[in-house]
Every structure is written in structure tokens, then in C-alpha cells.
Amino acid sequence: MLSELTVLEIIECGPRTRLGAGSGLFFLRINAPGWEKSAPGQFVMLRASIDQAEYLCARPFSICRLTDDYLGIFFQARGRATRDFAALKAGDRVCVWGPLGNFLPLDARVPTLILAGGIGIAPFVNYVDKHPDPEKITLEFGHRLPLGCYPFAELRPGCRASAHLEKNGRDREAFSALVKARIREFASSGIVLACGPTPFLRLVREFALKYKAETWLSLETRMACGIGACLGCAVKALLPPDVFIPSPAALAGPLQPEDTERFVQTCICGPNFRADRVLL
Ligand SMILES: Cc1cc2nc3c(=O)[nH]c(=O)nc-3n(C[C@H](O)[C@H](O)[C@H](O)COP(=O)(O)OP(=O)(O)OC[C@H]3O[C@@H](n4cnc5c(N)ncnc54)[C@H](O)[C@@H]3O)c2cc1C
Ligand code: FES
Predict the structure, then answer these.
(1) Ligand 2 contacts CB of residue 230 (under 6 A)
(2) What is the pLDDT of residue 19?
């Protein structure tokens, strides 16, 4: 659904340096789109203008928070479009289409391990909000900037959430070791969900395959259209050989020996993929 919405607030998160530089991480609140249905793990395409000629400037973002009053997006200003988003002000009109993509698995009975790296925490704020039993959730968050730069304090109370500052290689090694130990722990009776930079997802995938843990990776592949029209978001995945048109359903089950490698579109088949089915 395509909606023209109004910016309610935008704040740059976290402290400024002594020279006055900000974190480059922003929390954007837009008035609620009024979707009939959406689920954790989905994303939106956001454009900082309602001018149709600016179609190509839309970018994908996880739904970080969705309440009756607002849609929250947590983003990093990286390049052309996100710098335009960072310059938005309350009252500006933006274009949002969504909710897009498949859902992250959510089962009140299943112990769930969430592994988030940096801005990869974004989809999990909404996930924890919507979970019927947050006490089933353990969340490990690795980050490089001060914790106040991220919506960590926004996580709904009840889940067991720990943050791990990665200042140097030793910290990163310690976090990797923790990720490995946690995946091993959850392999027999829980599920694992992860989002973050690709090297982090590769690491999670390696341990998930090693310990045979049911693991879902939320990808942040570059996207141009978000709706299956441009082929710009293709990733390699393993699909049953009889599947003609790849879909989230075709990728939902455990891997079988006869499954074969194909390109699939992240926006149509994801962004959430089983770790054993997606090749990073
Ligand atoms: C489903 C999904 C959910 C996402 N959720 C979020 C989110 O919640 N918060 C958030 O900050 N970002 C998120 N992203 C990534 C976000 O879409 C990109 O950061 C954004 O498109 C960059 O646009 P730009 O025009 O500012 O950057 P560009 O000018 O296009 O690129 C600037 C720099 O950023 C790098 N870059 C651009 N896109 C990506 C990317 N996807 N991954 C890694 N590097 C990239 C480029 O290589 C380049 O170095 C998500 C992506 C997807 C597909
Ligand atoms: S972003 Fe265009 S096909 Fe996926």
C-alpha cells in the first residue's frame, strides 16, 4: 500500500562528540499508515518526497516500531537518500509503501535467540513489541558506537537483552565467541534470528549450520524497487528443483539434499531467509 504520510519527529540518536559531530544514526517517527495487517520482520520503502519523479530515491527500511500512533524507522545516514532523510523535519510529507516482505517466525512457546549487530537491531524492537511472551526472548546486541545511539533502551521490558560494545578486535572476538556459544545453546530447543552487517550474518550462518540450529537471517540487500520489478536485490538460495517461481513458502522448509542453487529476489522471497537456504 502506497501512503503519503507526515513526519512527526526526527532525532539524531546518541551523544555528540566534543567537536560536535553526531552519530549519523536517526530515529524517524511518521504518522501511522493504518495498515490492516503487518508482522515483525517486514520492511517499507521510504521516499523523502511525495514527488513521483523521485521514484528511484526510495530506500528499504525495517519497521522498527509500529504503534497505533506512529511508524518508527531507525536508520543510518550513509549516502544520497539517507542523507535526504536525515534532513527531514516535522511536518514534511514522505512516501511510504508497505508493509513488504515475509515475516520472522514468532511462536510464544519457542525460546528465541536474537542476534543483532549495529543497525540490525531495528527489526527486533518491533519483534519484541509484538511477541506474546517476551520472556522467551534472549537478545545479544553487538555495537560499535555508544549504546545510546541505538534503540536498545526502547526494547520492551521482559526480554533478556544484553549489549556488547565492540571497541577493538578483542571485543569482536569475544562477541563472536558468545554468538557461537549462544547458537549452540539454542540449537536443540529454540530458534535463532539475526540481522546485521553481512560479515556478521556469515558468522551466524556458519555456526547455525555447524550446530544445526533453525536460524533465520534478515538481509539488508540493496534494493531499488522493493516490489520485484528490477532484479536489483538478487541473492543465491537453495530451492526445491520443482519450484518454478520462487516464493517465501518455497524457501520456508528445511533444506533437502536435492535442492539446487538459484537466484531469488530478496524483496519478494525475503528479507528473512533460513540460514541453510541462503548463500551469503
Ligand atoms: C529489508 C531491508 C531493511 C533495511 N533496514 C534498514 C534499517 O532499518 N536501517 C538502516 O539504516 N538501513 C536499513 N537497510 C539498508 C538501507 O536500505 C540502506 O542503508 C540505504 O538504502 C542506503 O541508501 P543511500 O542512498 O543513503 O546510500 P547509497 O548512496 O546508495 O550508498 C552509500 C553507501 O552505503 C552503502 N550501502 C548502501 N546500501 C547498503 C546496504 N543495503 N547494505 C550495506 N551497505 C549499503 C553503499 O555501498 C555505499 O558505500 C535495510 C535494507 C533492506 C533491504
Ligand atoms: S528490489 Fe527490485 S526486484 Fe527486489
Answers:
(1) yes
(2) 79
Report how far residue 44's alpha carbon sits from residue 2's, in angstroms, rounded to the nearest whole number.
10
User: Which amino acid residue places its CA nearest to atom 39 of ligand 1?
Assistant: 222
- pTM for the model stands at 0.96
Q: Is 226 in the pocket of ligand 2 (CB under 6 A)?
A: yes
Q: Are residues 200 and 246 in the same domain?
A: no
Give me ligand 2 centre to Cα 250, in Å. Answer: 18
Which pLDDT tens digit goes with each residue over 19-65? 778 999 999 999 999 998 999 999 999 998 766 665 568 999 999 99
240 C-alpha vs ligand 2 centroid, how far in Å?
A: 22
Residue 61: how many CB atoms within 10 A of its CB? 24
Going from the Cα of 19 to the center of ligand 1, the distance in angstroms, rounded, reads: 26
End-to-end distance of the chain based on CA atoms, in angstroms? 30
Who's near 41: CB < 8 A, 6+ residues apart?
Answer: 62, 101, 102, 103, 104, 123, 127, 218, 271, 272
- Show the ligand 1 pocket: residues with CB < 6 angstroms: 43, 59-62, 74-76, 78-82, 119, 122, 220-223, 271
Q: Tens digits of per-residue pLDDT, 174-208?
A: 999 999 999 999 999 999 999 999 999 999 999 99
How many domains is the chain built from? Answer: 3
* Whole-number Å distance between alpha carbons of 98 and 63: 10
Is 83 domain-assigned? yes
CATH number at residue 75: 2.40.30.10
Residue 20 sits in which domain range? 2-100
